[in-house]
Design brief:
210 residues; mainly alpha; Arc Repressor Mutant, subunit A; 2 domains; two-stranded antiparallel ribbon; 9 helices; 67% helix; 3% strand
């Protein structure tokens, strides 16, 4: 009987076998899995967490998690590298959120990449959820998709690269071949539009449930 694995490339079948053996406590298979996938996962982490030392620590933590969770890998639901990449991305994003939650003391004047000075007080977050939280809470993919349609094509592309692919503003600017200031403006206005759209949608849902 044909299974999903039969349509996979050789590398995916090999990684699936290594995960299965790791789930049974095979340390040699785990070492081979690390050798075959660590470079890819480290690159994924670095795209989100740019502190190399922290990224290296995260990589080790991720493989500890993989050792513990390998038995739960389901080949019928995803390919092994997709599963591993998801673990790495989630752990890297969590590390950024923890870092952002730590209080910092900084000058109230900041110079951005275009040498423009502005008051950092303008950047202080309000009590409302930030864009990442709003995107995470938008469990209805259709609702999020409708909100994204309110953005211009450049805004949609910038947000997708920044928040779904984990690129920095500078990396987005390089990818789109646009000035950094332009990209920052697109992302800022897009997030404002998304926030308003998602909040209105949440309010309508709440009203409809009463």
């Amino acid at each position: 009987m044909k299974t999903a694995l039969d349509d996979w490339p050789e590398r995916s079948r090999e990684l699936s076998s290594l995960l299965a053996r790791t789930g049974l406590g095979d340390r040699k298979a785990f070492a081979t899995l690390y050798e075959r996938t660590s470079a890819h996962l480290f690159a994924v982490i670095l795209r989100i967490q740019h502190d190399r030392a922290l990224a290296e620590d995260l990589l080790q933590e991720i493989f500890v998690s993989v050792w513990k969770a390998a038995a739960g890998f389901d080949a019928a639901r995803s390919q092994p590298l997709t599963w591993l990449t998801g673990i790495a991305r989630n752990r890297a994003i969590d590390s950024l959120r923890r870092a952002q939650a730590q209080p910092r003391t900084e000058s109230i004047t900041v110079h951005d990449d275009q040498d423009d000075s502005r008051d950092r007080l303008e950047q202080v977050a309000d009590a409302a959820d930030g864009p990442l939280e709003l995107l995470d809470r938008a469990s209805d993919a259709r609702a999020l998709g409708e909100c994204l349609q309110h953005l211009s094509p450049p805004q949609r592309q910038s947000v997708a690269l920044a928040f779904f692919d984990g690129l920095t503003h500078a990396e987005v600017a390089e990818r789109l071949r646009e000035p950094l200031g332009t990209v920052k403006s697109w992302v800022r206005r897009a997030l404002t539009t998304l926030r308003g759209c998602l909040e209105r949608g949440a309010a309508r849902d709440q009203a409809g449930s009463i």
